[in-house]
């Protein structure tokens, strides 16, 4: 990781001089320029200090760079380690918050060969396993997203296919019904036109006879009129009988076209409230993630054996006179309270 800005020598800055830093002392926690580094490596108090380049310093994680060698409370260098509280301590901490702690050890002993300890390869393997687990989970989740997208496409196709099948079925039923309507309408029209033709033909004969009757009364002789009246009376009698017979028959009955839709379709309109239903079923995933170790801390800090633990006086409880108390359990907190 590149440095966001130039690093200046900490010692030179104290003299109000800005000099580019080239190294970082992990013990003093200061940036050093070329000249200051020379003096730093020659000084008896700092010649054994470990230094790293400024570029390598910025490659450290943020939480590592925030870790200091000095106690934030007493501003003293950490020299001890409390196994009970799992924290580094300065000499003043032993008389402050760690008076009753018997698991204090030299910090140098804890940190001795820490990079070559078993914790390093184990944690490295843990990180590798976690990385592989996350990669597998990410791949699984991406595959699920892709699978869900395909399921959506298939569902859309199924919905549209069902809709098309319904449309095709309804179109077929509609065409059949329209065909039946056309047939019935044609039959009805043909029958009515046939009757109409017969009636119209007789009506025209009556109209013709009516004109002939008018001419007869105007221009025919008495004998001719007598004979004509008899003949016309005969025809009118026949046509009256025809009309009476026509009224009595079913030929003049009303014939109306009525449409009755299928009750099944009515039930569909009333009962079918949705085209379908979308559900999400959940199943256990098939990702086999490595759970990792549960005893990681044991490799970092050695724990005290049972024979190494020594009791110490913590507190006194006073039982009121005449009262009895029964203790079945006790828990001492890290701050000494219980």
UniProtKB/TrEMBL annotation:
Boundaries of every B box-type domain copy: 4-54
GO MF: zinc ion binding
Listed SUPFAM superfamilies: B-box zinc-binding domain
Presence of keyword Secreted: no
Domain of life: Eukaryota
Keyword Cytoplasm listed: no
Pfam families: ANCHR-like_BBOX
Assigned keywords, A-Z: Metal-binding, Zinc, Zinc-finger
Protein name: B box-type domain-containing protein
Organism: Mytilus edulis
Taxon lineage: Eukaryota, Metazoa, Spiralia, Lophotrochozoa, Mollusca
């Amino acid at each position: 990781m590149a440095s966001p800005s130039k690093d200046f020598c900490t010692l030179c800055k104290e003299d109000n001089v800005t000099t580019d830093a080239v190294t970082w002392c992990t013990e003093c926690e200061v940036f050093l320029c070329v000249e200051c580094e020379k003096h730093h490596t020659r000084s008896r108090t700092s010649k054994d200090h470990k230094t790293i380049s400024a570029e390598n310093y910025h490659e450290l994680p943020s939480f590592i760079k925030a870790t200091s060698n000095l106690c934030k409370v007493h501003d003293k260098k950490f020299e001890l380690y409390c196994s009970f509280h799992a924290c580094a301590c300065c000499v003043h901490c032993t008389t402050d918050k760690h008076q009753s702690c018997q698991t204090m050890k030299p910090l140098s002993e804890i940190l001795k060969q820490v990079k070559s300890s078993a914790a390093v390869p184990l944690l490295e393997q843990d990180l590798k396993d976690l990385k592989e687990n996350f990669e597998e989970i990410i791949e699984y989740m991406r595959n699920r997203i892709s699978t869900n997208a395909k399921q959506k496409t298939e569902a859309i196709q199924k919905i549209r296919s069902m809709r098309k099948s319904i449309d095709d079925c309804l179109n077929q039923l509609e065409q059949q019904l329209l065909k039946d309507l056309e047939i019935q309408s044609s039959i009805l029209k043909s029958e009515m036109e046939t009757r109409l033709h017969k009636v119209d033909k007789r009506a025209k004969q009556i109209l013709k006879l009516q004109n002939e009757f008018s001419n007869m009364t105007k221009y025919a002789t008495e004998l001719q009129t007598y004979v004509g009246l008899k003949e016309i009376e005969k025809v009118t009698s026949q046509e009256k009988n025809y009309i009476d017979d026509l009224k009595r028959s079913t030929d003049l009955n009303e014939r109306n076209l009525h449409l009755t839709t299928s009750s099944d379709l009515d039930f569909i309109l009333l009962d079918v409230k949705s085209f379908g239903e979308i559900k999400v079923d959940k199943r256990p995933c098939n990702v086999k993630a490595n759970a990792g170790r549960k005893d990681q801390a044991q490799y970092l800090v050695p724990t005290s054996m049972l024979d190494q633990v020594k009791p110490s006086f913590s507190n006194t409880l006073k039982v009121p006179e005449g009262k009895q108390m029964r203790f079945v359990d006790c828990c001492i907190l890290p701050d000494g309270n219980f």
